[in-house]
């Protein structure tokens, strides 16, 4: 459960709710709506993946996502939201800045958030 209480994860979720609410009210906030939500997309998705892996698959609070898994999340979001959806619908627009923000968010997640949930206990000296 500690994984879902990571302050950066909570911040990303709050920003998303904020962005979504203001979009629904037809008052998008330029920098937050256009950049902050894209930056936090990978940290939020990767953190949810980490929580699932720790709880349901690996069953260890020491587990962290590999660089390849984080890279996959970045590439998946970039291809789907910046290439495929814009090609299929006029509702979406592809933007290389968004892909760069996904990558930056992935690096942020990997080096700042991707830590074991429990610290290892030091061995007792004899």
Helix content: 55-70%
pLDDT average, as an integer?
A: 91
Structural class: mainly alpha
Low-pLDDT stretches are none
Name the shape in a single word.
globular
Instruction: State the helix count.
Output: 4
Question: How many whole angstroms does the radius of gyration measure?
Answer: 17 Å
Please state the oligomeric state of the protein chains shown: single chain
Distance between the termini: 34 Å
Instruction: Please trace the helix and strand order, writing H or E for each element.
Output: HHHH
The largest sheet, given as strand count, sense and whether it forms a barrel, is:
none
Q: Got a strand count?
A: 0
Beta-strand content: under 5%
């Amino acid at each position: 459960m500690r994984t879902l209480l990571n302050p950066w994860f909570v911040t990303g979720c709050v920003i998303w709710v904020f962005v979504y609410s203001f979009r629904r009210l037809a008052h998008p906030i330029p920098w937050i709506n256009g950049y902050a939500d894209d930056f936090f997309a990978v940290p939020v998705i990767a953190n949810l993946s980490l929580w699932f892996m720790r709880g349901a698959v690996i069953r260890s609070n020491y587990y962290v996502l590999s660089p390849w898994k984080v890279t996959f999340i970045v590439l998946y979001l970039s291809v789907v939201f910046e290439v495929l959806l814009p090609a299929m619908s006029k509702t979406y627009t592809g933007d290389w800045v968004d892909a760069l923000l996904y990558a930056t968010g992935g690096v942020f997640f990997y080096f700042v958030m991707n830590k074991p949930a429990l610290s290892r206990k030091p061995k007792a000296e004899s």
